[in-house]
Amino acid sequence: MKTYLGVDVGSVTTKLALLDDDAQLMASIYLRTQGNPIGMVQKGLEEIRKQMPPEVEISGVATTGSARYLAGVVLGADLTKNEITSQAIAAMHYIPEVQTVIEIGGQDSKIIIIRDGVVVDFGMNTVCAAGTGSFLDHQAERLDVNIEEFGEQALRSKMPVRIAGRCTVFAESDMIHKQQMGHKTEDIIYGLCQALVRNYLNNVALGKEILPQVAFQGGVAFNQGIIKALNETLDAQVTVPPHHEVMGAIGAALLVCEEMGNNSHRTKFKGFEASQMDFKVSSFMCKACPNLCEIAQISVNGKVLARWGGRCDRWEVAA
Q1: Burial class of residue 127 (count of CB atoms within 10 Å of its CB; 0-12, 13-18, 19+)
Q2: For a Cys-Cys bond, which of 8, 62, 154, 257 suits 248, CB 3.0-4.6 Å?
Q3: Assigned fold of 96-240
Q4: How far apart are CA 131 and CA 26, in angstroms?
C-alpha cells in the first residue's frame, strides 16, 4: 500500500500526518517542538512507524510550517509548501464549500480567504502574541489553570469581564486588576477568550470579508471558549473540521500525493533511518557583499547537506 507523509513543523508544535492513496488519515502525531525541531521530527517519524500497518511504504513526503526547509532536508522531502497553501488544501478537503479559514496556532495566526476553490487573499500575525495560543498559555499559567481545562471553565462564565487584549502586557495587568476586584476566575477566562478573538479580528482579519462556511483550525480550536467567542462575534457559525490540530500536515500530505501521482519519480524520502541520524545545524556570516547574510547549514557526519538564508543563491547548493 502506498502512503504519503505530511510534516508541519512550527515554533510551538510539530505535526505529522500519514494518508493512504484514498486520502484517508492512517496515522497522525502531535508533539511540542520544545525548541528542537530536528529532534521532534525524528521522534515523530519513529511514532509514525509504530502506527503504520505492515506492508506499507511511504511514497512521498512533504513539509510545511516555519521550519519546513530544515525538516525537508532531514527527511528528504519531495515537496516543500508554505502554510497558507497547506491549510487551505486541507480545509477544502474536509469542507468543500469553505470560504474562510481561521487558523490559530501557538505563535502565529492566519486567515485564508477562499472563493470558488481558490485562495484569493490571506493575512498573518507573526509579530504580536496577543492573537495566538501562547497568549492563552501564558494567562492560564498566571491563573494557575491547566490549559486543557481553560475552555471548559470559559463555558461556565455567566458575566464575562472585558479584558484589554491588544497586547499581552496590557492583558496581564488588566487581568490582575480584575482579579483584585473580585471577579470570578471563569468570567476572567472567558473575557480572555473574547479578547483573543477581538485581537484576531481587528488585526489578522482586518479588511477581510468573512463569509460562510468558516473553518476553524489549529491547536486553539480545542478550546471551546474560543469557539463560543467566535460564534458570538461573527455572523456565521464556525465549523471545526476533524483532525483540526494537524491540518497543515494533512494538507502537505494531500499535495505530495497529487505531486507524486502526476510523475513517475521515486520518492526522495531517506527512510526511517533518518530518525537515527546525527544532524548538526550551524550558521555563519557571509561577507561577500554588504548584506552580511546569516547562512544556516545542516550537516551529517561532517558533510554539508544544505545551506539557506541568503538573499542570493550563492550558498543554496551544498558544498
Answers
A1: exposed
A2: 8
A3: Nucleotidyltransferase; domain 5 (3.30.420)
A4: 32
pLDDT > 90 fraction of the chain, expressed in percent and rounded: 61
Nearest to 140 by CA among 192, 64, 207: 192
CA trace torsion 183, 185, 188, 190 (10° rounding): -130
pLDDT at 129: 59
Q: Is 174 exposed, middle or buried (0-12, 13-18, 19+ CB in 10 A)?
A: buried
Locate the domains of the chain by residue range.
2-87+248-276, 96-240, 279-308
pLDDT digits (tens, 9 = 90+) for 265-282: 899 999 999 999 999 988
At 143-178, the pLDDT tens digits run 888 888 888 999 999 999 998 766 667 777 888 888
| Among the four given CATH numbers 3.30.420.40, 3.40.50.720, 2.40.50.100, 3.40.605.10, the one describing domain 2-87+248-276 | 3.30.420.40
Tell me what the mean pLDDT of segment 198-216 comes to.
92
Q: Which of 205, 182, 189, 215 is nearest to 136 (CA)?
A: 189
Q: Is the pLDDT of residue 17 over 60?
A: yes
Whole-prediction pTM: 0.89
